Amino acid sequence: MGAGAEERNSSLSPQVLQEIAKVEAEIDRIEAETIERLAAPPDNEIQQIELLGKLMLYDKDLSVNRNEACAFCHMPETGFTGPVSELNRTTGAYPGSVRTRFSDRKPQSHAYAPLSPVLHYNPGQGDLVGGNFWDMRATGRRLGNPAAEQAQGPPTNPVEMGLPDIACAVYRVSQRPYRALFESVWGPQSFAVAWPGDVEQLCNRPGPPAAADPLPVHLSPIDRGRVGATFDQLAQSIAGYEASAEVTSFTSKFDAVLAKKTQFTPQEQQGYDLFRGKARCNECHRDGGPGEDPLFTDFTASNIGTPANPRLPYYGQDRPDAWGYVANPLGSSFVDGGVGTFLSNGHLLSQPSAVDARWLKLGSDNQARMRVPTLRNVDKRPDPAFVKAYGHNGYFTSLKQIVHFYNTRDVLPRCQSHDPGEGTTCWPAPESTANMNTSKVGRLALSDAEEDALVLFMQTLTDGFMH
Q: Is the alpha carbon torsion for 438, 374, 133, 406 positive or negative?
């Protein structure tokens, strides 16, 4: 495991470690069950791609320390977002394969993500539309699929799966039991690569690579090209699974109501009416229109004025770790610039997609803006006591709290973090006021009962109601 094994779990409480062990056991169970399907794989190519994608999403070997699958941040029981209640409650962010490194943001759901359009600029709206990630940096411009480009971020992100080179992901896949299925779908050339003798050693060392050697797995130009193509196919397979009916299923009570198979309760109906009217949710979290899937996002970005989340371990990652990596050189003065940071200089951690040079001038107008997430499965949880985190940084820990914020952000007085009234009678200042949304958020004049009705409506967006 290399340097720092003894410190890897130092910042995780016993309760978090216990929950992580439970999630890992469930990942192993799902992976084993999925590997069994290789004995008689489907004969349809689409289903083969979905099976491949699922196998890779649940494969811990695709992380540097072989301990973190993609699914660690995206489990079905929570609507394909963070599955550790205590992490959601105490930080909002998740540790990477190197357990002392944490991301600066809350994991998003990957359900419905493949339905996002390729990132584009709409001059009529004056808005960028589409892409994946909170900062839209998985644009989809290269592969034609934002979800596929999103899948290319975590494997080499130092605070996530931590591999030093995309070649390591391809090499690790070539050692797995689903290699033959991959080759039958994408071709026998996929892993026809002359791997250097020290590939194992190189791939066991956490990224980022040294600036002087950005591609530490040294390959011939043709092998490097082959690795790039195979990495694209790996990502397209993952996006294929995310688009499958198993993940993106449209099976909520809301869908059943649309299909006239059931009805909302009076309070859910009141919440839906508020959602479309007085609460103005539907202006960004669109519930669809003629010929439009109700995806509960408009694929744009907005700064709703979320306060900084002082619980993020990322603020403390301002000193070199055991491998000499500094995740956050800015320390406590870090401000998440969202889409603006991506457009201006690329996301510092990982940038699976290139920035279109014509968009550089949009940087300041997008500073601090975050992509509008889908509300589908926004309340999906394994049990009522399970805590989910909301907002790009996980600042909010209940739906009621974030609804109250939308309602009262500009009405209640400002307070410091940890004030006894925080979140009920006062709010901390926004992390950034740049481009803050003041037209749709902040003073909605909703009563407490109306806030509750909105929460009840959003609970009808949980998949699994119809089978």
A: positive
